[in-house]
Amino acid sequence: MKKTKGSIEAEISKAITQWEKDYLGRGSISVKADILRDMIIVSLKGILTPAEYSVCETKDGMLAIKRTRADLVESGTGDLRQLISNITGQNVLNFHTDISTRTGERMMIFRLQGDLEKEFI
Predict the structure, then answer these.
(1) What is the DSSP string of the chain?
(2) What is the pTM of this model?
(3) Of 1, 43, 87, 89, which has the fewest Cβ atoms less than 10 A away?
(4) Strands 92-99 and 106-112, how do they pair?
């Protein structure tokens, strides 16, 4: 049976949640993946700890948290790219990510080799 767009999005969300727990030691509160053309856009909410929010009250603290969190995710980029490739069957060409220290939300964007969304039309 062919997978639906929604089932692949749910599989990606679940896999990234598991990656966070295994690699970073804790998961976010919610993860939502969306397939849009040749991109997978993942929104992760509840990333920061209460202590990190306190540190983010100053500009230096905010920059330190952003840098540390970016370094942690970047060090696991290979695993993330492989995870997405295994689920979608496509190579990941690019990976972009950023975190908001104000809302505690992280966005991840995976750029795929082909238009995955077309496979569901």
Answers:
(1) -PPPHHHHHHHHHHHHHHHIIIIISS--SEEEEEEETTEEEEEEE--S-HHHHHHTTSHHHHHHHHHHHHHHHHHTHHHHHHHHHHHHSS-EEEEEEEE-TTT--EEEEEEESS-GGGGG-
(2) 0.91
(3) 1
(4) antiparallel
Residue 120 located in a structural domain: no
Range of the domain at 23: 5-114
Q: Is residue 17 included in any domain, yes or no?
A: yes
| Rounded-to-integer distance, Cα 2 and Cα 9, Å | 14
Return per-residue pLDDT of the chain as tens, 121 residues. Answer: 788 999 999 999 999 999 999 988 888 899 999 999 999 999 999 989 899 999 999 999 999 999 999 999 999 999 999 999 999 999 999 999 999 998 999 999 999 999 999 998 7
